[in-house]
Amino acid sequence: MSHFAYLLILAACLLGTLPLEIVLRVGVYRQWRRLALTLLPVLVVFGGWDGYAVDRGMWTYDAHYLIGVTLPGRLPLEEALFFVVIPICAVLTYEAVLARRPGWARR
Amino acid sequence: MTYTQLALAGVLAAAALDLALLRTALLRRTAFWTAYAIMAFFQLITNGLLTGLPIVRYDPRRIVGWRVVHAPAEDLLFGFALILTTLSLWVWLGGRGVTRAGR
């Protein structure tokens, strides 16, 4: 079970924010094209940045908590998924704030 | 290069994207800061798990050494850059009309 630790944390993030889409109806997943176009550059840039950091030994991962799939660039799969899940949560949170306080969108 | 330098560069790049390139000005919106505060709170929890278990280990020579609930301060900067970049892109795309599921 420990090998699923990182994945479970990510799954919990998605499950925890799901009510924002379903109950608060912020419509983020509904705008899947907009979401995909947002996530792709973020994944590429931050995934690359992360890969660079790992390559330079700035941090390391404990294999005990990972499922063991490594992407090109020494990035664990979970880390790449991190750059998909966290941005999704950020967008959901932002849209939820706007849904409750539309006036706060003003610059 | 250290994680500190990398994280600071990331924050500056994200700010440049938001204020100069895409001009989404998230940094000037209450909604952004509110959303970021909420995300930061949860980041401390998830980061606490990631660095506390630890799933991730940091080279002490590459970080400043300040930790917030186990996680290096640099992680907060990194997270800030990630969230700002994401939301800037999201808002920008929305302004360009990429909102409906079919478009």
Per-chain topology:
The complex is a heterodimer of chains A (107) and B (103).
Chain A: H1 5-22, H2 32-55, E1 59-61, E2 70-71, E3 75-76, H3 77-100
Antiparallel strand pairs in A: 2-3
Chain B: H1 3-21, H2 30-52, E1 56-58, E2 67-68, E3 71-72, H3 73-95
Antiparallel strand pairs in B: 2-3
Helix pairs in contact in B: 1-3, 2-3
Describe this entry's structure for a reader.
The complex is a heterodimer of chains A (107) and B (103). Helices cover 62% and strands 7% of the residues of chain A. By secondary structure, chain A is mainly alpha-helical. Helix content of chain B is 63%, strand content 7%. Chain B contains three helices and three strands, in the order ααβββα. In chain B, α1 (3-21) runs parallel beside α3 and α2 crosses α3 (73-95). Chain B is mostly helical and 103 residues long. The model of chain B has no long low-confidence stretch (mean pLDDT 89). The A-B interface holds A 5-6, 9, 13, 30-35, 37-39, 41-42, 45-46, 49, 52-53, 56-62, 65-66, 83, 86-87, 89-91, 93-94, 96-98, 101, 104-107 and B 1-3, 6, 10, 25, 28-32, 34-35, 38-39, 42, 46, 49-50, 53-59, 62-63, 79, 82-83, 85-87, 89-90, 93-94, 98-103. β1 of chain A pairs antiparallel with β1 (56-58) of chain B.
Give a count of the beta strands of chain A, DSSP E runs of length 2 or more: 3
Roughly what is the average pLDDT of chain A, rounded to an integer? 93
Parts with pLDDT < 50 across at least 5 consecutive residues of chain B: none
Provide the helix percentage of chain A.
Answer: 55-70%
**Nearest-integer average pLDDT of chain B:** 89
Determine Rg of chain B (CA atoms, Å).
Answer: 16 Å
